[in-house]
Fold:
Amino acid sequence: MLIDTHCHLDAAEFALDRDAVVACAIEAGVAGIVVPSVGRANFIDVAELCRNHVLCFPAYGIHPMYVDQAHDSDLDVLRDWLIRERPVAVGEIGLDRFVEQRDDERQEFFFIEQLKLAQEMKLPVILHVRSAIDVVLKHLRRIRVCGGIAHAFNGSRQQAEEFIKLGFKLGFGGALTWTRATRIRELAATLPLDSIVIETDAPDIPPMWLGHGGRNEPFESRRIAEALADLRQISFSELAQATSRNAEQVLGLIGR
Structure:
């Protein structure tokens, strides 16, 4: 059993074959797919997708790269959705200091307010932390939430350990399959196994065998998990069981 802890299955790239993509994932042994939203505009799409596919679990949040399109009132809408829908997490939320055209102050405002919502609702968070890990950690120490996942982790060992101390799992996906990604591969191979979850970020972050620009899909989580098992020199079965258990624990999937 595998759980893809981060997949934008509602994306337009899957509009023509979404059902087939889900079927392929099931055939590959994927038992759960977490689908995070990026803003108010796709809350409904994520909700309907997850109602139509029992292995899909929703998360609702406002992505840092979409805050320029968001209104402050969207936070009230998000709060209503969290109460009504009881998703597995608040997400995808966080900070992005990589893109050049951005509003850092607005990103931080939305991040802080969504952390407060997660704290209030006692929900974990799915974090976007690109080029902003230390700032994200600063806010997490101040506004304590019940853990979550640092998506597409690409930080240092020290930063990884800080997330783990705060109750977070670290998401590893297609990036670890690229041989030149030496830091990611070293961390994926040596961090405690109980701190790691598998993700695809489909349709983005394709694994090496798809090449740059290839469409990633949730069924690729199997080959990603196999690559990680090889890196750690353990069996695929052990890797799959451990990472799925980690995802179930941090996201409260047991019994859903």
In short: The chain has a mean pLDDT of 97.
